[in-house]
Amino acid sequence: MRIALDAMGTDHAPSAEVAGAIGALQALDSDIEVVLVGDQSTIDAELARHTGVPPGRLAVRHAADRVTAADPPASVIRRKPESSIVVGLKMVKAGEADAFVSAGSTGAVMATSLFTLRPLPGVARPAIGTLLPTALSPCLMLDAGANVDCKPQHLVQFAHLGHIYAQDLMGIPDPRVALLNIGEEPEKGDELTLEAHRLLDASPGLNFVGNVEGRDIIQGVCDVVVCDGFVGNVLLKFYESVAEFTIGLLRKSLRESDEHLNLEEVFRILDYAEYGGAPLLGVGGVSIICHGESSARAIRNALGVAARAVRSDMVSHIAREVSAPAKSEESA
Amino acid sequence: MRIALDAMGTDHAPSAEVAGAIGALQALDSDIEVVLVGDQSTIDAELARHTGVPPGRLAVRHAADRVTAADPPASVIRRKPESSIVVGLKMVKAGEADAFVSAGSTGAVMATSLFTLRPLPGVARPAIGTLLPTALSPCLMLDAGANVDCKPQHLVQFAHLGHIYAQDLMGIPDPRVALLNIGEEPEKGDELTLEAHRLLDASPGLNFVGNVEGRDIIQGVCDVVVCDGFVGNVLLKFYESVAEFTIGLLRKSLRESDEHLNLEEVFRILDYAEYGGAPLLGVGGVSIICHGESSARAIRNALGVAARAVRSDMVSHIAREVSAPAKSEESA
Q1: A213–B193: do the CB atoms touch at under 8 Å?
Q2: Could you say which of 3.40.630.30, 3.40.50.2300, 1.10.3720.10, 3.40.718.10 is the CATH number of the domain covering B1-123+282-316?
Q3: Residue in B187, B231, B255, B258 to test binding to A, most A beta-carbons within 10 Å
Q4: Could you check whether A1-121+282-314 and A124-276 share the same CATH topology?
Q5: Whole-structure pTM over 0.80, yes or no?
Q6: CB spacing of B230 vs A193 below 8 angstroms
Q7: Rounded distance, CA A140 to CA A138, Å?
């Protein structure tokens, strides 16, 4: 298995990428290779600073250009064909890599993934799935920002995408799927969620557990929660900031109190780096989007997620089980 | 000034209400009176357990009935006319009280406030404002759940309501008003926020600072943030739960580590009880909604908020400044 890793994605590329790739290769099965995609000389210089690179498992694919936050996402494929994002995704398209991982501009990775890997037949709106830490096991939320102004049937499709992700990557045989709403009762919600609830309730093959509220997610009451990408994006960014804020308050108190306390467990649970990247679900290949501030550990974990997605043949699973029923619901 | 307090609202009524009322009377100006609205004998029994009740400033108004979570909010005014919520709000309507505070069913307090106090002329959608803790001063978010499927002009009206609340109750002369969105640039967003941004930018009398994302709120970049009530409600409940969750993780670590650390400051910042209740803005009277799990301290603080709203003549301020421009925007 070969995973293409955008080496120019994070704010401090390529150091986090190179260290993350080496860490992943040491942790993952020996048949897994990583290809660092980006400026050859920059990557070579960074690689020279490391020892312990597993021989024959780490390669470099030169990409002369780099996407920045200023590039309009939809124009990247046309205007920056030599960028690491376009080169890496084209490797997946051409079968030269089995998955792509990037911490570059979320919009650019998403748009370029849609252009190159294409939505699977019958998938109206590929969605970004992201894992939220909870009191029990993490909960997959989708859509985390790929789509706004969703229709009820899009949320149903997200539920099916999430169902398969939870089965294949989280190892949950019959994942509990919930609808994010402002009340538990089926008659609560806005126009979108009222109708989505009705459709989800009638959708075969889903363990739909009904509505959950903002406060329920963190209790671990569901494995998958679906929502419009506007709500999901606001919530995700808010969660990250609240966790950071709380930890910041804590660290300050700890410094002031002059105590030395082991709060690693708290920090670990709330640390996004633990959870790897966010997959774009519903396209014809594995594409994993990481936070722009990803650490080497976050990159390593995202490579692990990519490897599990390839190993479980998630894309075929989605093509087989989601595309067909989703198509019929879409036309209904 | 006389504030009617629903004595039957919290999960453990009337003990939090009675203790909160006594605490408020001790802290607030001596011309402020509180009327406990609810079952006379239950309240009397609770009052008998307290000393230090300021003479002549605490009265009881008997209300034989009580609203429960099972009562459909819109039916309360008709089916439970003797409930503490209906009796208390009718006191405000009749001029027997200057404000109403309740920790009862949010939906019931909101619906009954709309029925009895009525929206102010030109206010299309009264909104619930709620204070979110941030790294700097708290930020007022509205709407926190009174309205779903908002139109862009409703968000503009929320901005004006929040502007006045921030001036009158938070003491901010020129509050920074922001639009909750999924990107900072004006061209980011869904249909609602794209158009709302345009209208807010053109709305006179507002210090509109543009879009903020979920992660910005907690940095304290704005004093008021407007959003659809669906998004606001999800976010609010999520925030409460994340803060609780983090504090829970922390308390557990502290217990296990056998250390004694003073983290009161952290807990205080993240403790909702600090911030009092959430006002329903845009109706013809002061109506403050508290969390169903409010402590005596939360009730005391909500009574303080009610007193400040009355003292600043907030309702007249809204009637004067919001109703007219909002009306013209509404018809535009």
Answers
A1: no
A2: 3.40.718.10
A3: B231
A4: yes
A5: yes
A6: yes
A7: 7
**Minimal Cα distance from B247: which residue of A?**
A246
CB contact under 8 A, A234 and B213: yes
Amino acid at B280: L
Classified as helix, coil or strand, A117 is helix
Note the ipTM here.
0.87
A197 touches A184 (CB < 8 A): no
Class of domain A124-276: alpha beta
Q: Is the pLDDT of residue A134 over 90?
A: no
Domain B128-274, CATH homologous superfamily name and number: Isopropylmalate Dehydrogenase (3.40.718.10)
Burial label, A277 (beta-carbon count in 10 A; 0-12, 13-18, 19+)? buried
One-character DSSP codes across A120-144:
PTT-SS-EE-EEEP-SSS-EEEE-S
Q: Which two three-digit tokens encode residue A297?
A: 């550990």
Chain A residues lying within 8 Å of B184, measured CB to CB: none
Chain B residues whose beta carbon lies within 8 Å of the beta carbon of residue A261: 253-254, 257, 259, 261
Question: Is B215 in contact with A263 (Cβ distance < 8 A)?
Answer: no
* pLDDT per position as a tens digit, B180-229: 999 999 999 999 999 999 999 999 999 999 999 988 998 899 999 999 99
Q: Which residue in this structure is represented by tokens 């006594």?
A: B22
A1-121+282-314 maps to which CATH number? Answer: 3.40.718.10
* Residue B183 CB-half CA count within 13 A: 15
Q: What is the dihedral of CA B75, B81, B85, B89, to 10 degrees?
A: 110
Where exactly are the structural domains of chain A?
Answer: 1-121+282-314, 124-276
For residue A217, list chain B residues with Cβ-Cβ distance below 8 A. 238, 241
SS (H, E, C) A315-332: HHHHHHHCHHHHHHHHHC
Among B181, B189, B238, beta carbon nearest to A214 = B238
**Which DSSP state fits A97?**
-
